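Researcher: Structure prediction, please.
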Amino acid sequence: MANKKSENTATLGFESVLFQAANKLRSNVDAAEYKHVVLGLIFLKYVSDAFVALHRQLESLVEEGADPEDADEYLAEHVFWVPAEARRDALQAHAKRPDIGERIDAAMAAIERDNPQLKGVLPQVYSRPALDKRRLGELIDLIGTIGLGAPEQQAQDVLGRVYEYFLGEFASAEGKKGGQFYTPTHVVRLLVAMLTPYRGRVYDPCCGSGGMFVQSAAFIEAHATGNGNHRGHGFRARADISIYGQESNPTTWRLARMNLAIRGIEANLGPEWADSFHRDLHPDLRADYVLANPPFNDSDWGGDALQGDVRWKYGAPPASNANYAWIQHFIHHLAPDGIAGFVLANGSMSTQQSGEGDIRRRIVEADLVDCMVALPGQLFYNTAIPVCLWFIARNKADGRGDQGRPCATGGARRCSSTRGRWAR
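Model: Predicted structure follows.
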């Protein structure tokens, strides 16, 4: 299996080889900045490849009235319009020139100008003096090999795979800071597999770089036909979910927008970045699924300014710790039959500080806790403490749990559900 080649000429492990090669070109730019350089170029590669593929199709249909230089033709196919100066061949031809940084920044600005949905999303950091332009040219050549010769959809898959791998590697390199934008993939997959979000509204109010949404779409695609082999069915099935998110960090918000766009996933992340506690961009949303990995034990969330907030139905969370503010925010945004799965520090299951124990008791008494799963430590880049998964269900009588009774409270060992089965 390790030596089996796919049609895109990439062997298993292709991502790591590419990352190692790209990282050698980093020079004097630290990982936190370099990730924007690399991930921006991957996104530019994606929009360019998708544009070129459709451009060629339209060229073959000119006699039938198609116009390969009409931006509306691309809008109709959900492909970003790429102006002439930002197209792959134009940039590749100048990759070795000293002004390549200015050309890339101009290309990013032009794409944002002609695609309003990308306004404020693309990095324009390539003309900075600190960025070695010779190595930047080498990086462009390297990223140009991704998906080379692959069919259009497979090339998109490879670009998405590379983007996700690079996100993880940059998070690892940044350590604690990296945990702010990236949740390890295996943790996200576990949450998604347990919730099985086939259809409905999916919400993550602290979405980071969008991993919850990517895995939700991947789950739907893989299970749409029972075997995941017929990709077309999977992509059509994505229409069964609507994605809503929010992110307070501007650079992370941009990473998420690019991450989702590369995979063709439509999502409402708001017109800009914003804090979910203090500026909820989806105040009326009642989601069928909430998936989230909020910051653990955040003591600087501004709780003093939110006394009496409508979300604190089960008690005012302490200003010194946002854990129970997040839990109640999730509950507030759940639909009548909605279910939430989220990650928190293990201490959230037993804390009695500052009224948190009373809030937890009221949530349990309201019969909202469906299941809790304790995970080991060392799973996250930003903390070594052990973590747990909470599952909250608005209506457990709707097939969830054991005849409507809590699955994980009171020492239960196993929980069965119409949406999955799990052991504690």
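Model: Residues 31-59 form the longest helix (29 residues).
Researcher: Thanks, that helps.
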